[in-house]
């Protein structure tokens, strides 16, 4: 297959300059076109493709600076490399040439070999960039498709609403796909809800989250008695087995921080097991304790809003690879619920976000205070407040990590829906 010639547009108001440049470029096997003024040049690039433009500055009417500016303003032409070739050799003219978007600046008289060398280099860079952009677009398209698959694997909000009428989910991937996930399942008179934070984010984290969702559904179908700690234990075994290394050098040291709760809505009770994670619950009134078997609990009373926030922590060990090599097993914490309790499960992305006047982490303390002050609002309002607070806090910082917050209000009866 014959290699296609690179195409160059010469823009100069003097025919003798065009003839000289055209001769040099034709001898080096370039396909050359020309324009005698700025408007004609802009019309050329509108209707044809060029790999490079050689542009004079001093032309009547529209000068080279304005031509270049217009080229860079147009999405179709802004990537075409522009080399100014001119008799203006003062530093101010050179600087202005680069400021308006020129990629190089050659002064007359010029050396033909130097000209050809620069032209060749910039065309090669332009074509490499075009090829890279095509590959990036292909990768982005693939990741966007993966996003659709990942979102399809998550429970649908309408289905969750049938089981938990008062709830919200704030789900904000840092990239296109996310390492954070949420999972909801109903088994007879029990609702199982989990929020997970996989190692990393982006594509690796998304793969881990898809594995976790698949394994969770397997585990639920395989067990006779629903038990939160047992689910985390089995999930950890499956992930470690799947990612087992063939050698120490090939070890895949991925893990999941995870909160998992089981609500028995006949007894109005909750079972919680955490893997390097915690949950929070806000209850109306001022309380000194939480009825049940809870060992790792912190209590924060809000006298102004007349409520109590309970922070319940799980085992300081993740699901999957554990670099600390903990010997303890996942355990359950059981406690009674009251109608109107508001439960929050979340990853650490919101709490760890940098921002504010001193560019600090948002912190667990701020998060607890925020939840304590908004827990009694409608859930769509709570979600809006959390989103606005994050944007305000984040300021000019980029989002640090994936974010998921799952909040719901406890009712004395729940709907029934098949959540796969």
TrEMBL record:
Alphabetical UniProt keywords: ATP-binding, Kinase, Nucleotide-binding, Phosphoprotein, Transferase, Two-component regulatory system
Enzyme Commission no: 2.7.13.3
InterPro entries the UniProt entry points to: Bact_response_regulator (IPR050595), CheY-like_superfamily (IPR011006), PPM-type-like_dom_sf (IPR036457), PPM-type_phosphatase-like_dom (IPR001932), Sig_transdc_resp-reg_receiver (IPR001789)
Listed SUPFAM superfamilies: CheY-like (SSF52172)
Catalytic activity entry: ATP + protein L-histidine = ADP + protein N-phospho-L-histidine
Span of the signal peptide: none
4-aspartylphosphate, modified sites: 56
PROSITE patterns: RESPONSE_REGULATORY
Any GO MF annotation of the entry: ATP binding
Protein name per the record: histidine kinase
Gene behind this protein: pleD_2
